[in-house]
Amino acid sequence: RFDLAPYTWELVKDLRQGTALFTRPPLPIKCAGAPQKAMYLSCSHWQKQSVLTNINIAFHNAGGALFGVSDYVPALMEYINQYGVNLRFNQNLVAVDGPTKTATFEVTDGEGNMTLEVHKFDMLHVCPPQAAPEFVSKSVLANESGWLDVNEHDLQHSKFSNIFGIGDVIGAANAKTAAAIRTQAPILANNLIAAMRQHGEKRYYNGYGSCPLTVEHGKIVLAEFGYGGKIIPTFPTWLINGLQPGRLAWMLKKNILPKIYWDAMLKGKEWLTRSSKEI
Known about the structure:
Radius of gyration: 20 Å
Distance between the termini: 36 Å
Order of helices and strands: HEHEHEEEEEHHEEEHE
Shape: globular
Largest sheet: 4 strands, parallel
Strand content: 15-25%
């Protein structure tokens, strides 16, 4: 909810001491790195204000790893350690009591046993669980998990050949990011036209997604990857090394990507589409 961003910023600015909890729900969600970005930026602000040591910070992650692509974890762990964040894996937020400022987490141990833990907080950042709209999830178009049932490579529906899917709603194992949709759109357009004309070569999506992880003010770890966690960089490593935090990646995110979004992507123009004629 974009309208809650100013409120979140006020909470960050007003917190001078106490406990700050950040959460990430089970996948799939819109950009799994987003909850981390909020945490890193908050920590960066508190560090600049010289109050970081007064705040106990914990990241309650419903998953079992800091980031789904292990190659990027070392760079992120440097900031986890720098900011003194307490990592808590396999902990899913299930209830919040605002008046008492308590959060309840469902904790799963290594043997699959689940228990409940209650934690006090002075600030809580919640990323809620996400699902497809009911007109998809409760229809014949959905797979068993409630997402649009498409082939993850050609984006065509598995049962209805006249239906294609794109974006966050599709049941593909890609990162749900704007970069993914930017790449999918021309592929879908090509394959849709080929299906309508009943001729023409198909193009295939390789699962590309990008997650610019803002680790501090002025630096970003530019994670770019596809299906199976394969790293798919857009730029040569001498220009932007996605495995390390960099200022050029920050400039790309802050100054260039908005222009690409508004002036190119939303107007149907794309020059960096990642597709192939083979899966």
